[in-house]
Specification:
Number of strands: 3
Order of helices and strands: EHHEE
Strand order of the largest sheet: 1-2-3
Number of helices: 2
Shape: globular
Radius of gyration: 13 Å
Strand content: 5-15%
Largest sheet: 3 strands, antiparallel
Oligomer: single chain
Structural class: alpha+beta
Length: 89
């Protein structure tokens, strides 16, 4: 089981606390990729974080969502060495 950290880089992006409580009725998202809900990343996000780090972070979100039976639709990961956070929605 992984923690709230993505595990691709020496210094890892940290999953921030979501605004809504985990037991909020709208905290039902599992970040599952389907033909109707494609997973895409911007070229800027890939350039800043790397494709592998973004995929690793998606796996962390999926594991956390499974553990908590869902999460808010918007999750943010921050990296102390990056100028911009990594957003998942």
């Amino acid at each position: 089981m992984c923690s709230d950290l993505c595990y691709a880089a020496a210094v890892r992006p940290i999953l921030t606390v979501q605004e809504r409580p985990l037991d909020h009725p709208e905290s039902v998202n599992h970040f599952q990729v389907t033909p109707e809900k494609l997973f895409v990343a911007t070229s800027g996000a890939i350039e800043m974080y790397s494709q592998q780090t973004i995929i690793d972070c998606l796996h962390v979100l999926q594991e956390q969502a499974e553990m908590h039976d869902g999460m808010d639709y918007l999750r943010i990961l921050e990296h102390p060495e990056k100028s911009k956070p990594l957003w998942f929605f």
